[in-house]
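ingest -> validate -> predict -> emit
validate: passed (alphabet ok, no gaps, 110 aa)
predict: started
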Amino acid sequence: MEIVSNTKKSAKKTKISPKTQKCSFSGSTADFYIGLSGINNSNSNVRIVGAVRSDLVETAINKLLGQGSDGIKWPVVLDMKKRILFHSHEAYQKGTSAVLGWKEYFSKVS
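emit:
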């Protein structure tokens, strides 16, 4: 009995840190999620494919191009809270590639 109560006390004091995601390519800590989305910019309509570190986002975007179906075909980059940061359909509408769109977006926020 005493051991159980000690365990409960220590469990209350222990903070549980969020699980860190590993990059799908390198195995190191990821900075972003990569996924596919439909045309609208709603997070409810995203298929997360993996996690990537910042220097491999372009590689991930290139690997996803042409992989979607049923209107879920645009590569997107999400933060670690799974909110869309970059949607490649916007780059397409501007007449540029998904990778160039990401570079433009990333240069503005860095």
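Helices lie at 2-13, 57-64, 88-93, 98-109.
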